[in-house]
Request: fold
Amino acid sequence: MKETVLQRFEEVFGDSRSATVFFAPGRVNLIGEHTDYNGGHVFPCALTIGTYGAARKRNDRRLRFFSMNFEHLGVMESSLEELTPSEDADWTNYPKGVMWAFEQKGMKLPCGMDLLLYGTIPNGSGLSSSASVEVLTGAILREFFRFPVTNQDLALIGQYAENHFNGVNCGIMDQFAIAMGKKDHAIFLDTADLSYEYAPIELKQAKIVIACSNKKRGLGDSKYNERRSECEAALADLQKVVSVNSLGDLDEAAFEQYQDAIKDPVCRKRARHAVYENQRTIRAVEALKQGDIQTFGRLMNASHVSLRDDYQVTGPELDTLVEEAWKIPGVIGSRMTGAGFGGCTVSIVEEGAIDGFLQKVGEAYREKIGYPADFYVVEIGGGPEVCQAPSSAE
Ligand code: GLA
Reply:
């Protein structure tokens, strides 16, 4: 992959020997969905697929971007004087947003750069291709300009850029999972205080299979921000009768006791999901620690039902993928992952059942939805890294 991006860099920008190659992963969330902006727990992991970037500092303040995933856009030019979001800037709003965020936080960029990207994550699939680009950009700026930032800072800066530059009110999960990724481990993160613990994922004879619905979604134009406001409205009602900082402070019993305080029945359903999903996540990680993968899988299935019925973020594409998966012996658990409204499902499948899974779920999906799904058997990888230093001095 390094060779591929360096070769393209040579063709697009010239002198690839002066470029550094970086990598940042994508992520998949195993359980704990739509809990990260409700003070709850999440359990994502970084993947070995992600975004490669070849970058080189410039002697002026210009920025030149090129993506091998959007070849038709050609070289997109900008400068450090133009760090404002615009529709024309397309995907370059993600790296520009991170540059802007560094400057907002007092880390001024001394010069521009040439940056070429190649992503091995399907775009808009819900595996966080945008957060991957954000963390990658942060890792490049840190390396080039020696800014004193930790990987956790890279996650927070990426989220800041997403919220304030790109206008998506996302939580911290994606950027955190990517910046803090650890090979063969998932991250049990409490989003209320960012305390976290790595849990080894030892699935014995099983693998993580991602099914991509190929129904594109963009967080900006989805109902993501609406769900967030519904949860905020529910919390405001609850706070009139019980002292809590977030929905994550409630367990199931407390929710049942106070739920009538939530006036709007839709907001009540949304809050029920947030509370129950958080408790499910805590229980799922506990089960995994005991080596009880079957319970983990059952909790994944329950998570999907709650996202389908109470949170209403699935839709026929994701429901078909999951409901077909549930029919197959050897599927330990299956659910939608990420924001929903399209994107991917994540399943834990016994190795001997994978071929049948790909075939049966694939056929049923094509028949019902009318176009094919894509499948990926994935591995859990580490966080951002420098893959190759420049081979010549600048
Ligand atoms: C998106 C957001 C995350 C999280 C998930 C839902 O991926 O970026 O912050 O809210 O949706 O769990």
In short: The chain has a mean pLDDT of 96. The radius of gyration is 21 Å.
